[in-house]
Every structure is written in structure tokens, then in C-alpha cells.
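Can anyone check this?
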Amino acid sequence: MSVTQHLRPLLAAGVLLLLAACANIDAQTTEYVGVPHAAPTDPAGVEVLRREPMRPHDRLGEVVVDASTEPPPPVTDIEQKLREEAAKIGGNAVVVVYDRIQPVSAYVSGPLWARDVETIEGRKLKGIIIRYR
């Protein structure tokens, strides 16, 4: 067996790791002013909901998540990020109110007389962090 035959599996594994490393999730949390402030909670106990629950609750703040689309991170990673951010400000649940893929930036290439504008898409989520009474 040649050296290149030994290196091919390692190279393939390296490319897969590089692609997985490119998936990106960023979050910004805003705690509302004038609402009850709670101690941090355990992220494992935070629910991710698609509609507001009927149980009495207080709105503590909101979280906005930006995620890459090429390659996309696993949905479970996005949900975990929502849980972690909600737990930081004492949330028991986060209600997702906005979840879509949209242009997040653009770049221009080519000579002045033949410019080409390319957009870069990203996934945006917004959730309201709540605490049950």
C-alpha cells in the first residue's frame, strides 16, 4: 500500500471535521426591564415550545439565534442553544415566535462594468423566554 492510500481515510475524516466545524450558532439574549428577575435554571429542564402555553407565566426576555445554513447545524444543537440562553435568565421555557432562513449579508464581486451581488443566507430564530408562576 502506498502512502497516499493510507492518507486518504485521514484526509476524508479531516474534511468531515472541517465541515462540521463550519456550522455556526450565535445567540443574543435580552432580559426585559421591569419584570421579575429569577436565578438561573437548569438548561435540561427548559422547554422549547412553538406556541404560548396556557399556564400562567411571566415573560422574562427574548433570545435571537443566528445559525449557518451551509452547512446547517443539527436542530438539536439549535434547541440546546435556546435552552442554555433561557436558563441563564431563569426561564422555564422558550416560545419560538420566528424561525426562517433569510439573507443575512451580501458581497459584490467582478469588475465595475459587470458587478455581481451574491447574498449569504442564514437561519434566524426568535424566542420569548418565560417563567411559570
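Reply from J.R.: I decoded it. DSSP finds two helices and five strands in the chain.
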